[in-house]
C-alpha cells in the first residue's frame, strides 16, 4: 500500500481530534490502476471500498470531499427505496409556485409530464460490472486524484458515510441519493468510481440501448441531478440520446 492517512470528520475540516470517528483512509499520492483493481477484488475480504476522490482546495479547503457535513448512518439509506426517492424529488421539482409557476418549464420534461414516470426497467449486462469499472477508472485519474478506502459494503453508501455535501444545493441529505445509486448498482451494473466536491462519476455495465429505455433512465437522472441534465441538454429527451449505450455516467451539482 502507498503512504496515506486516516481521515475523520473533524480532521478533514479543522485538523482533527484523536477521538473522532474514522471515515476513510486516503492516499498521499495518485493511485495506480493496478492497485485500484486489486483492492476492488479484495473488497469482500477487507470490507473497504476503493474510491477515487478529488478535491478543490481553492473553494473549500484541503481534502474537502470527506467530512464536510456530519455523516449519516447506513440505516438512513436502508429506510429509502429508489422509487420513493424519485417520486418525492420529481413531485418537488414539478410543484408550481403560485407566483412564479413551475420550477422547470414543462417542455424540459418531455417525453414525460409532471407525473413521475417511475423507475426504468433493468438494463442488459454488456460486461462484468467490476471488470468494466477497472477498465474505466483510469479515465478519471489525474494529478489531483487520490485513493480512498471506505468501510462500506457497497460503493453507493460512500456518499452517505463520508459526510459528502456535493449535492447540498439539490437535497439536504444524501441517504436518498445513496438509495438510488444502490438501485443503479443492481439494475445497471453501476459502480461508483470517483467522488469530488460537487461531482460523481460511475461506470455502467448495463446502459440503456433503446430510445424509450434511455428516456426512462434520463428521467431518473433528472431527479438525481437536474443540473447535469439541463446544463448540457434542453431537457430529458435530448439528454436521453446522450446516455444511450454510454459506459460511464457523470454528474455535477451547482
UniProtKB/TrEMBL annotation:
Q: Name one Pfam family in it.
A: DUF4253
- Taxonomy-wise, where does this protein's organism fall, top ranks first? Bacteria, Bacillati, Actinomycetota, Actinomycetes, Pseudonocardiales
Question: What superkingdom heads the lineage?
Answer: Bacteria
- From the Swiss-Prot or TrEMBL record, give the protein name: DUF4253 domain-containing protein
Q: Which part of the chain is the DUF4253 domain?
A: 146-254
Among InterPro entries, the record links this protein to: DUF4253
Amino acid at each position: 500500500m502507498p503512504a496515506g492517512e486516516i481521515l475523520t470528520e473533524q480532521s478533514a475540516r479543522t485538523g482533527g481530534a484523536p477521538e473522532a470517528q474514522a471515515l476513510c483512509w486516503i492516499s498521499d499520492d495518485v493511485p495506480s490502476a493496478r492497485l485500484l483493481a486489486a483492492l476492488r477484488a479484495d473488497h469482500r475480504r477487507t470490507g473497504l471500498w476503493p474510491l477515487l476522490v478529488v478535491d478543490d482546495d481553492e473553494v473549500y479547503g484541503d481534502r474537502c470531499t470527506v467530512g464536510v457535513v456530519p455523516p449519516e448512518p447506513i440505516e438512513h439509506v436502508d429506510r429509502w427505496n429508489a422509487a420513493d426517492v424519485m417520486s418525492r424529488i420529481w413531485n418537488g421539482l414539478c410543484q408550481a409556485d403560485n407566483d412564479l409557476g413551475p420550477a422547470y418549464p414543462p417542455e424540459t420534461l418531455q417525453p414525460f409530464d409532471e407525473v413521475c414516470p417511475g423507475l426504468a426497467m433493468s438494463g442488459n449486462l454488456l460486461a462484468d460490472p467490476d471488470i468494466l469499472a477497472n477498465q474505466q477508472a483510469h479515465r478519471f485519474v489525474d494529478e489531483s486524484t487520490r485513493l480512498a478506502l471506505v468501510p462500506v459494503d457497497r460503493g453507493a453508501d460512500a456518499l452517505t458515510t463520508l459526510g459528502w455535501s456535493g449535492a447540498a444545493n439539490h437535497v439536504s441529505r444524501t441517504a436518498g441519493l445513496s438509495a438510488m445509486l444502490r438501485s443503479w448498482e443492481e439494475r445497471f451494473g453501476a459502480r461508483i468510481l470517483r467522488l469530488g466536491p460537487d461531482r460523481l462519476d460511475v461506470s455502467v455495465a448495463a446502459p440503456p440501448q433503446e430510445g424509450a429505455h434511455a428516456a426512462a433512465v434520463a428521467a431518473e437522472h433528472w431527479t438525481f441531478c437536474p443540473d447535469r441534465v439541463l446544463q448540457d441538454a434542453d431537457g430529458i429527451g435530448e439528454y436521453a440520446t446522450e446516455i444511450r449505450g454510454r459506459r460511464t455516467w457523470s454528474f455535477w451539482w451547482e
